[in-house]
Amino acid sequence: MRVAVAATGSAALEAGLLAGEEGGNAVDAAIAAAITAMSTEPGVVSIMGGAFVNIWPAGHDPVVIDGNVEMPGRGLPDEAFGRGVRQVSTDYGGGVTMGAGHGSVANSGAVQALALARERYAVLPWRRLVEPAAQACREGYRVGAAAALYLGVVRDPLFGPDDEAYALVTGADGGPLRPGELSTNTDLAGILELLGAHGPALFTTGAVGRALVDDMAANDGLVTAADLAAYSPIVQHPTMRPLGDWTVALNPPPSVGGPMLAAMVGELADRHEFSLTDVINIQRRVLGYRLSVHDRSRDLHADGHALLLAVERYGLAGLPTSASTAHVSAVDDQGTACAITMSSGYGAGMVVPGTGILLNNALGEPELNRLGLHAVPPGTRLASNMAPTTARSATGGALAVGSPGADRITTALMQVLGRSLLHGEELQAAIDAPRLHVRTLDDGSVRVDHEPGADMELAVAQSGLPAHAYPGLHMFFGGVGAAQLADHGLLAAGDSRREAAVGVSP
Questions:
Q1: pTM of the predicted protein model
Q2: pLDDT tens string 30-59
Q3: CATH of 238-323+385-483, one of 3.60.20, 3.40.50, 3.90.550, 3.40.630
Q4: CA dist list (Å): 489 to 2, 246, 333, 339, 483
C-alpha cells in the first residue's frame, strides 16, 4: 500500500514509509513513525508521555483515541501530594520556570493508545511497528535541530541531577548534543525489543512498570501500581466541523486544544473566506475565553462542551471576554488518514533507572496546571493543547494534519486549514505562509506576535493591538506536518519552521 508521511525526523519518516512498503496502511505508518519519534527525540518527546490518535478510516466514521497523561496518586495518603518537585528556571522560550523531578511525572498513556489503534485499525503486527525504533536507538539516529536547541538550553539545570538522563542528552565531546550528531540509546533499544514482544503490559504490570513504581516510591513520586493498572485509553467521537468542501474531525473535550480549534474553524467557515483580520479577531476572542475558563477548569469535559455549544448557538458573541510536542501525519492511497500528536512536557529531567526512558513532567508544566501543584484528583486526565486533525472532502480526498507548539498548535492549524481547505491554497503553500498568534502576556495585556509579510503587517495595524514582529519564519509558530490524498495522488507537506521529514512510499 502507498502511504504519505509527514514526520519531524528522518528516522521517524523512514519507519513510517517502511510500514507502507510492507503492506501497512496509514495507521501502521503513523504508529511506527510515532514510536520512533518518541524514542529518538530526547527532550522533545518521550515514550512515557501522552498522545492523541485521530483516525478516519476509509469508508467509516472517524475516531479519536485519548491516550493523554492523567493525574497519578491512587492509594496514596494526602500528605504524599505537593512534594517531589523541584523548580527549574531556564532561558528557554524567553524564560520558563518548570517543575521537574519525580513529583512532576504524570501517569502516561501514549503506548497504550498506540497499541489500541493498532489493534483496531492497523494490519501489521505490533512487533513490526516497534522494530524501527529499537534499531534506530541501537544503531544510532541523527539528533534533530529542535531537540538540540532545547537541550542546549536546559541540559545542565534540568537533566544535571540524574546521571543516566544527563548522559543521554550529552554529546560525544561532553557538551550538549549538536544538530545532526549521531546518538544512541542502547538501554532503550533493549526495552523497545521487549515492548515489541510483550506489548504495553511491559509498562504497566511488567518489569518497566515495576521499576517505575519502585523508583517513584523511593523519591516522593506519585505514580503507583494502582495507577498503571487503572489506566485505559478512551475512544471518543471527534468534534465535526464543515470547512469549505471538507468535513474536519477534531480532538473533542476534555482536550483543550481540540475545542479551541473547533471554535476557530467554525468561525472561519461562517465567513466563507480567509482573511488575516478575521484570524486576529477570532483568535483574540477564543484564546481570551480559554485563559479565563479552560486554563483554570476543574471539569474540562463539561467546559469544553459548553464552549462548543455557546459558539454553535451564538457565535463568538457567546464567549465571555476576559508549551513541547511532536506530531506525525499519514494518509494512504485508500483514503485512510491518521494524525498522532505526542507530548511529554518539558521533561522531568530523569529516567526510569536502567531503561533509557526519559520521563514526562506533565504535572510540572505551569501552563497546564494553573490550578496549582497536584490540585486535581488521581485519575483525572490533564489539560492538553494537542489537536491532531483529520478531514475528508466531498470528492473523496483525505487529510491528516497536526503541529507541536503548546498554545500555538491551535492557531497554527487554524491558519493552515483556513488557507488550504477554505481558501483553496496548495497544502505546502498554506504551511509556508506567514502566521500570527494573539498572545496574552503575564500582565494581562494582549498583543499580536507575527511573522513578516505586507498583508500581515496591514492586518495587525488595522487591529489596533500592540505587535511583536519576528524577522522571519520561526518555530514559535509551530511546525505543521500534513499528509493528503488529493485529486493528483498522495502528497506530504512539512514546515520549515521546525525540522520536517516528509515522503511518499513507492
A1: 0.92
A2: 999 999 999 999 988 999 999 999 999 999
A3: 3.60.20
A4: 10, 17, 8, 19, 11
